[in-house]
Design a protein that fits this description.
The protein is α+β, with helices and mostly antiparallel strands. The protein contains 19 helices and 15 strands. The radius of gyration is 43 Å and the shape is elongated. Belongs to the CdaR family.
Length: about 550
């Protein structure tokens, strides 16, 4: 009769326990209720311990206990499989221990540090008997409950263990719900703080305070230094946090330590700061694009040769005097554009780099873009070495961009259109003939030929050389070297590694088939021009 009374009491207590556990979403309250219920249901327990699994650290940590030094036990962190707690966690099955020897065997793999804290936590007592049950919900083990006795061997029964199993099962649902609630609560807190942080950074941008203020605020928020760089190799810089616009990397924040080492709140601050910097860069880029467009408008006014007030307005903007001499240079990519249109700041970085180089070499240059060309108008108020200027640009960009240069002649401001058109012809010739830099003033007969319609040039070339095409390749090579060496017979034979008689025969053959005489000045000039056209035509085909 007494046994039935005990069972009825325990059943009612378990039902009451289930109701209490489901009424709270606070983990501390749930664990307290589990301890209270377990004490009432198990009469002979000296110590009750609850360990919960931390999936971030992959450790079982002390969460709540009765009859122990809780501060000492909070330093214990069991790995899955370590000691009784870790083994029950992995096996997900309850375990009853009735002897000290069995307990010692199961606790044998406990680390020295954990044992030290554990022994102090249980007040230096040796366990005589115990049982341990897993806290399981939906086949996931959330932790374990351990019930210890330090006075008697074999005092616990399977019935005791089964009762605590029920308690553990009831608590598992409540603990899981508490975790979900706590997670949502934390997410909500982070979201609110994130919005607050976003608004603080966004306000700086709205007020036009700039990137330096954004960095300064970020440093205060994360209690760490940060620097903004436009050019950072993200692969080499472990502490660099990229600032992006879609797939386009606009720069990076160089932090004191890796991004992942910061707290979640600090990470949110870094992310919000990077977004604000991206907005500032986009805004600055839009302003810079307007500035470039305005420079082009000023150039158009100068190009049109306007006079009076319009000219004075344009000259005032570029800070030029009306009697200055200017020179135009055009930069263009060989096979690829000088900047990628889809990358926001690629063009801006390139143009600004050219500005820095030219500003150190000359005064008040006018630099702007048209399509994928960069155009420089350089005032010649002091000696400007074009080669040094171009060498500086090449040194800066040689590993990233294949740049060609077309240089017009020096002209007055009123004749700027002449220098500009010459630069256009020069850049065209440079790309056509694969020459890095072409100065219009240094072009020879090519300057005239470039102005002539291609069909007319082809007709002239074929009229003069058509019969030559039927000869062996050796005759064409002989003529090429003979022309390059300005009719020097001896050197031509040496380079071709042929006897002078062989050279004489080939040259006579060329004269006969083309019906010309090399000693006739007009014949020679016509031949040289036609052959240069032939060589240029073959280069283009290659």
């Amino acid at each position: 009769m007494a046994h039935n009374m005990i069972n009825i009491y325990k059943t009612n207590k378990l039902l009451e326990m289930n109701k209490i556990l489901n009424q709270s979403l606070k983990l501390e309250e749930i664990l307290h209720n589990v301890i209270v219920a377990a004490k009432e249901l198990i009469d002979v327990s000296d110590v009750l311990l609850i360990y919960l699994y931390d999936n971030v650290e992959n450790k079982l940590k002390f969460a709540k206990g009765e009859g122990v030094n809780q501060e000492k036990l909070k330093k214990v962190a069991f790995s899955p499989g370590e000691s009784i707690t870790g083994k029950v966690f992995i096996e997900k099955k309850p375990k009853l221990f009735t002897s000290e020897q069995e307990i010692d065997d199961y606790m044998g793999n406990m680390t020295e540090e954990n044992y030290r804290h554990y022994y102090e936590g249980v007040k230096r007592r040796k366990i005589k008997s115990m049982f341990c049950v897993p806290i399981i919900n939906k086949d996931r083990c959330l932790g374990v409950v351990a019930v210890n006795n330090y006075n008697q061997n074999g005092v616990f029964t399977k019935e005791d263990m089964q009762v605590i199993e029920v308690v553990a099962g009831q608590s598992a649902i409540a603990i899981d719900n508490a975790h979900v609630y706590s997670h949502l609560k934390e997410k909500n807190r982070l979201l609110k703080q994130s919005i607050t942080i976003h608004n603080r950074f966004y306000q700086l941008i709205i007020e036009g305070r700039g990137i330096k203020k954004v960095i300064s605020m970020l440093e205060r928020m994360i209690s760490s230094t940060a620097e903004f760089y436009t050019d950072v190799n993200l692969e080499d810089a472990a502490n660099a946090f990229p600032i992006r616009r879609g797939d386009d990397i606009l720069g990076a924040l160089l932090l004191e330590r890796p991004f992942q080492s910061f707290s979640e709140m600090d990470q949110i601050a870094i992310e919000q700061a990077s977004l604000s910097i991206a907005l500032e860069l986009i805004k600055d880029n839009a302003i810079y694009e307007k500035e470039i467009h305005f420079r082009e408008e000023v150039f158009n006014q100068l190009l049109e040769g306007k006079s009076g007030r319009d000219l004075q307005h344009a000259l005032r903007y570029v800070k030029w005097d009306e009697d200055w001499i200017v020179q135009c240079i055009i930069l263009e990519g060989k096979d690829q554009p000088l900047w990628e249109a889809e990358r926001l700041v690629d063009k801006e970085r390139f143009v600004k780099s050219i500005e820095r180089i030219t500003n150190s070499a000359t005064l008040h240059s006018l630099i702007f873009t048209r399509a994928f060309q960069l155009i420089m108008i350089l005032p010649k108020v002091k000696h400007t070495n074009i080669n040094e200027l171009i060498n500086g640009i090449q040194a800066l960009w040689k590993n990233e961009k294949d740049i060609f240069y077309g240089v017009g002649r020096e002209t007055s401001i009123r004749d700027l259109s002449i220098s500009y058109n010459e630069a256009i012809r020069s850049i065209g010739y440079a790309k056509q003939h694969n020459v890095r830099m072409v100065e219009y003033a240094k072009l020879g007969i090519e300057r005239l030929l470039y102005e002539v319609d291609k069909e007319i040039l082809d007709m002239f070339m074929n009229d003069k050389l058509q019969q030559l095409y039927i000869l062996d390749e050796s005759f064409i090579e002989t003529l090429r070297i003979f022309i390059d060496l300005n009719k020097n017979h001896k050197k031509t034979a040496e380079i071709l590694h042929i006897h002078t008689n062989t050279l004489y025969y080939r040259l006579k053959k060329i004269e006969e088939i083309l019906q010309i005489e090399f000693n006739n000045e007009k014949d020679w000039i016509d031949l040289v021009i036609a052959f240069r056209l032939y060589v240029a035509s073959n280069k283009k085909e290659d």
